[in-house]
Amino acid sequence: MNRQGKNTYQPTIKDMIFLEKPLEVKVSPNGQKIAYSVQKTNWKENCYQKVCYIYDQKKEQKFQLTRTGSVNQFEWIDDDSLAVLGTLQSKNNSEPQIWLFDHLIGEGWQVTDHEEGVKSFKPFANGLLFLTDNPEKKKKKRKKEFGSFIHFEKEESSSAIYYVNLQEMQYYLERLKTAGKKGAKKLIEPVIELTKNFQESRAITEFFASPKGDTVYLNCRRREDLVYVFETSCYKLTIDPDFALDQYLEQEETKKTDENSTKDGKNDDKKPEDYSYLNEWIQLQLPKAATIIDIAPDGNKLVIAHKERDIMMYTQTDLWIVDLEKITNLQEEKLEEHLVNITRELDQEPFYVQWIPQGIVVSFVDHQIAKLVQINQTGEITPINLNGLYLYHHYHLSKKGHLAFIGTNSEKFVEVYFTEQPINNKKIKIQRITNFNSQLENWSLGQVEVIKWPSKDGTTIEGVLRKPTNFDPKKKYPLVFVVHGGPASVSFNYLLEMVDLFFYPTVQFSNQELLVLKPNYRGSIGRGQAFKELNKENLGIGDLWDIEAAIDYLDKEGIIDPTKIGCMGWSQGGYISAFVSMHSDRFAAVSVGAGLGDWYTYHITNDIPQFTTHYLSESPFANRDLYQKTAPLSKIQQAKTPTLIQHGEKDQRVPLACAKEIYRGLQAMDVPVELFIFKGMGHPITKPKENHAVMHQNLNWFNHFLLGKELNFVENEDD
């Protein structure tokens, strides 16, 4: 197609999938350098790869740091060294490992070579803490005797926290090069497990390193399974990690000497393990289901996430300040007296939180955009003005308060920005350091705006409407809904979201002169607690009110053809699409992505059964009435809407049985239905070619039933 002229090129689905985009940012301690990752599409290997770049503010230059593999995480060690977790160049281990780029040059040197790979890491003292699985705790012995099986929801976790001293590791690696095979066996790797003396098994979900370098905090739950997600416990370990490492290495040296003596017949006594070099982990007395979010710069206080009213999924989380000195040895009934709620006035779900000397910085969703605020320890809130830009998932601050963030709005694609001054400066200047928008030059993407309408019960519902570039208010357009998952999520008023790039061809619909509406139905975030719980005991039913009311509103505006309406969505959006298809006769076609047709089937097969007991108030084994009332399949007898179903083969969140149940039901009613199962995929679809298939199938499905085009799932629309 012609790329000349303004907004004349109509991008294909593959164009969307191949867009490069920033995902994460980290500012160096002095605020002079920004590390950021960029997602790139590797079509040949059918994967997405994340590459790390560095921007030097003083030199006004950027360069690519990592050249191979993919980056999962990165952290500044100092102003000139970056540690990177990823699958970079390891020849012996395909699992993610940590690499250190000293002075930000060269290929970096490999810090870890852990058998199970590394899940995450953080700088601590003179080295790094990292989370992984202890291979000794794996079920290898059991497998040898009894084969492979899983004790459902009863398997103990093998998660563990390790510490590595970077200087000691460099020395060890240098010695390893010249040691030879026999000499290498005598060397001891300077890595110590800090959780060896844990009293009982716990699944470690997150860990935190005190800025002082002397304390480690853990968020844990009983087991890895998500049925234990609210059974949390938090622990504290005060330790001199380098002293403990020295003691450990000394013990291991002695152990090797003893082993050699035993082989020579000199010593048959096996000494018990001695963990005296490790202090005891102390469980913190925190409220039920509370988790640690961050540590104060002086290390004396914590900010925790805690739901004051109850632990229901539809209840918003608040942030609380905890003074560590005051809660030590405190009885639980007196704990609330020493917690300070700092987000009560915000009345929004907090997301990413960072505590720096200037205050606690919090991101949250406000209606259809993500914002930043600064909160002090008494709960006073100060907005951070980003000059017409809004957050796209991630931000980071240096210790001095320099901010880097990924920003966007309804007219601009994502870019990396940073502030030349600390955030407490009243006149901060925001500078863009990337140019990802150049990829979209002359692209026809339509117009994005927020609309509002009254629902059936009078509740005001908001949504994001994408109109064709050449929108004519006198013309009646076909309308398709793209319904977000969650339900505690949101569709943003941004030019492009992830859903537009990987799941639903909203831009292609717009260029074929369809209106695309993303409704932020009841239960969405960004509207406060009262709105978030409007779908309690009202799943599907209230959603249908909101969506049908949108049809009525746009029809009254005179801009839609009410005979050409479609609906699609993933996860909860897939459920809602299935519900409207069987409980309404106003839709010409729907697409159900990772959705469900019956809450009972979902409850007994998924990995978070609390969802149904929270939103539908009780177990289906106690009362199935509400489960039946809110199930799409409860109206299967009246189903007529052609339905496309897309589902991951290994989805545990909404298991494949849910998709097959809808498919069998619609088949029995002679309703046009197609089911596509994506091999190896879980709840989301995470590979480029499969994302292409999802988008292509949806485009063809709605083109056929709304525009009368031939239905063809296999030919590429780019041909």
Provide an overview of this structure.
It is built from 15 helices and 36 strands. The protein has an eight-stranded mixed β-sheet, with helices on both faces. A four-stranded antiparallel β-sheet has the order 1-2-3-4, with no helix packed on it. It has 719 residues and is of the alpha+beta class. The protein has a domain at 445-707: Alpha/Beta hydrolase fold, catalytic domain (Rossmann fold, 3-Layer(aba) Sandwich), CATH 3.40.50.1820. Strand 3 (47-56) and strand 4 form a beta hairpin. The model is unreliable at 1-5 (pLDDT under 50).
Can you give me a brief rundown of this structure?
It is built from 15 helices and 36 strands. The chain is of the alpha+beta class and 719 residues long.
pLDDT averaged residue by residue: 93
How would you name the CATH homologous superfamily of the domain at 445-707?
Alpha/Beta hydrolase fold, catalytic domain
Main beta-sheet annotation: 8 strands, mixed
List the strand order in the largest sheet.
29-30-32-31-33-34-35-36
Shape by Cα distribution: globular
Return residue spans where pLDDT drops below 50 for at least 5 consecutive residues: 1-5
* CATH architecture classification of the domain at 445-707: 3-Layer(aba) Sandwich
**SSE class:** alpha+beta
Topology:
Elements: H1 13-17, E1 21-27, E2 33-42, E3 47-56, E4 61-64, E5 70-78, E6 81-87, E7 97-102, E8 109-110, E9 120-124, E10 127-133, H2 140-146, E11 159-165, H3 166-186, E12 191-193, E13 203-209, E14 215-221, E15 232-238, H4 241-263, E16 282-283, E17 291-295, E18 301-306, E19 318-323, H5 324-327, E20 339-341, E21 350-356, E22 359-366, E23 369-375, E24 381-383, E25 390-397, E26 403-408, E27 415-419, E28 430-432, E29 447-454, E30 460-467, E31 477-483, H6 498-502, H7 506-511, E32 515-520, H8 529-532, H9 541-556, E33 560-570, H10 572-583, E34 589-593, H11 599-605, H12 610-615, H13 625-629, E35 643-648, H14 656-668, E36 673-678, H15 688-707
Parallel strand pairs: 31-32, 31-33, 33-34, 34-35, 35-36
Antiparallel strand pairs: 1-2, 2-3, 3-4, 5-6, 6-7, 7-8, 9-10, 10-11, 11-12, 13-14, 14-15, 15-16, 17-18, 18-19, 19-20, 21-22, 22-23, 23-24, 25-26, 26-27, 27-28, 29-30, 30-32
